[in-house]
Recover the amino acids of this structure.
């Protein structure tokens, strides 16, 4: 990949990049689940904005690459049927969210607030109940962007390329499913 957007975990043991040419949507999600995951991983300060929003770049997994520290990759699920929330097992830094299967290729890269290189924020989503003072915008466009990306990947065969799943479609690490007590303790107050 050329022209990457390079990132690292807080402790510096993991490094990854998203290709500069990666198509995608830059948005901020204010949902309770994104906040819960950041709080559980003890990264509400490094990955949530002052209103509890997570900056996310939605793209295809084929544009995402780990180049150092892959042995530290870990994943959680907030429940048995939730998203896979990938993070650096060394220090808890959130990395990305994926669907639980590689059949629908999608990755929501978790960015530090104010990240450069991803263009303007196109959508503010899931504000009801968590950031009601912020008006939701761009929700339909964000959803359509995901659908277009998945269709493009499936038609081109790109769905088979993901650093988060092996060639059989199994996650590369076994995700830890949070129990109700852990999940509730991390919920925003």
């Amino acid at each position: 990949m050329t022209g990457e957007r390079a990132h690292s975990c807080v402790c510096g043991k993991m490094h990854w990049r998203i290709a500069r040419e990666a198509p995608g949507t830059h948005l901020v999600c204010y949902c309770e689940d994104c906040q819960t995951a950041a709080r559980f991983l003890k990264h509400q300060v490094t990955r949530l904005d002052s209103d509890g929003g997570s900056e996310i770049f939605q793209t295809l997994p084929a544009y995402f690459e780990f180049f150092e520290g892959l042995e530290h990759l870990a994943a959680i699920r907030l429940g048995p049927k939730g998203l896979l929330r990938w993070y650096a097992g060394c220090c808890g830094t959130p990395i990305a969210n994926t669907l639980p299967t590689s059949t629908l290729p999608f990755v929501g890269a978790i960015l530090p607030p104010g990240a450069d290189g991803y263009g303007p924020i196109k959508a503010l989503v899931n504000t009801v109940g968590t950031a009601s003072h912020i008006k939701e915008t761009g929700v339909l466009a964000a959803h359509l962007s995901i659908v277009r990306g998945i269709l493009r990947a499936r038609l081109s065969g790109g769905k088979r390329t993901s650093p988060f799943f092996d060639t059989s479609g199994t996650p590369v690490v076994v995700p830890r499913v949070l129990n109700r007590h852990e999940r509730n303790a991390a919920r925003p107050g």
Q: What stands out?
A: The helical segments are 32-40, 44-47, 139-156, 180-186.
